[in-house]
Specification:
Layout lengths: L1 E5 L3 H11 L6 E5 L3 H10 L3 E3 L3 H5 L5 E4 L6 H10 L4 E4 L6 H11 L6 E4 L6 H12 L5 E9 L6 H5 L4 H17 L3 E9 L17 E8 L4 E7 L7 E8 L3 E4 L25 H4 L1 H15 L9 H20 L3 E2 H4 L2
Parallel strand pairs: 1-2, 1-4, 2-3, 4-5, 5-6, 7-10
Antiparallel strand pairs: 7-11, 8-9, 8-13, 9-10, 11-12
Length: about 325
């Protein structure tokens, strides 16, 4: 297969290595507005060829396109790629705003072109096992789901300025995990956020953003979701999910790299070293996610995360943002349209 990759920043360069390692990918066609980024990829990946623009990439006869460009470019690139009839993988979110996302959804409604939105926890073996435990009934009625994303350090200020805020940028992975594992949609959220007093204003306060946030989610069947996030967890990258039912409870992410230090005397677990970034914690998930996209592009399977799936997660992020700013519970039907 020939796969196109648009955007070679932090996640795009990582995807380039992952795609190149897949047996069924014979060639990568890559592009980035920063020439040095494209040169770095083609220098280390023999099967990668660079072109000068997204338009040139879409004209290159690729079998599928992976969009890893800046969030602000997602909507335009997704519409352009799908409009050419090319199966498309797009990193979350669908677009830079809810209005744009709705436009993309509506313009692609009824299209038979496969689109997959990037939510890698759906492919993490531990998260998959947790979902299987819920769906099989092993846990009985689920009453609580806790999902955590704690980043060791914030991304660059330039990224944060266009990220849409912690709920749209970081928490969405937890929102998607809660929905996907339980099979339930959110009804109402209540969110709070705090800013590290030592954090530069231009990184958070100037954009109405937060360094730490928590969200309570009421799901359609009454299950309570608890989401915790921060950008300043110096011990490491912490991604976990707990699912508690009336019969049993399970957890994903309790491995030797869990970035927690036990205080119980005599306990030495976890042995470490702590996970330092999402790329080492979720390496297997990213590989499975992109391998699945190749199967989607080949017409072998249907998309495991459609635009409609991603919209369900996006509405939680919108509601959480309003809730934290206005300090009140917000129903999903208040923001969804």
């Amino acid at each position: 297969m020939r796969i196109g990759l648009i955007g070679l920043g932090r996640i795009g360069a990582f995807h380039a290595d992952t795609l190149a390692a897949l047996d069924r990918v014979d060639e990568l066609v890559v592009t980035d507005p920063v020439t040095a980024a494209a040169d770095a990829v083609t220098a280390r990946i023999p099967k990668a060829t660079a072109v000068g623009s997204p338009e040139a990439l879409l004209d290159a006869g690729v079998d599928g396109v992976v969009i890893a460009a800046a969030t602000s470019a997602h909507a335009e690139l997704l519409l352009a790629s799908a409009g050419r009839g090319i199966p498309t993988f797009c990193e979350k979110p669908i677009a830079g705003s809810a209005d744009e996302a709705v436009t993309v959804r509506d313009r692609l409604a009824g299209s038979d072109v496969a689109v997959q939105i990037g939510y890698p926890r759906r492919f993490d073996p531990a998260f998959v096992a947790a979902r299987d435990a819920v769906r099989s009934g092993q846990l009985g009625r689920v009453h609580t789901v806790r999902s955590t994303t704690l980043d060791p350090a914030p991304p660059p200020a330039a990224y944060l300025a266009g990220s849409g805020g912690i709920f749209r940028d970081c928490s969405v992975h937890d929102f998607d995990a809660v929905r996907w594992v339980t099979g339930q949609e959110a009804v109402e959220v209540y969110a709070v956020g705090a800013v590290d007093p030592d954090a530069p204003a231009e990184m958070y306060a100037d954009h109405g953003d937060w360094t730490t946030a928590s969200v309570l989610i009421t799901l359609a069947d009454g299950t309570v979701g608890v989401v915790s996030n921060t950008r300043t967890n110096a011990r490491g990258y912490d991604v976990r999910l707990e699912v508690h039912g009336v019969l049993d409870a399970v957890a994903a992410g309790l491995d030797e790299g869990l970035p927690l230090r036990p205080t119980q005397p005599g306990i030495t677990w976890p042995g470490g070293p702590p996970h330092s970034f999402f790329m080492d914690r979720l390496t297997a998930a990213f590989r499975a996610e992109l391998a699945t996209f190749c199967a989607v592009a080949a017409g072998e399977v249907t998309s495991p995360c459609t635009i409609e799936d991603a919209m369900g997660t996006a509405w939680i992020a919108e509601a959480a943002t309003v809730s934290a700013r206005e300090k009140r519970p917000v129903r999903i039907d208040e923001v969804a349209r």
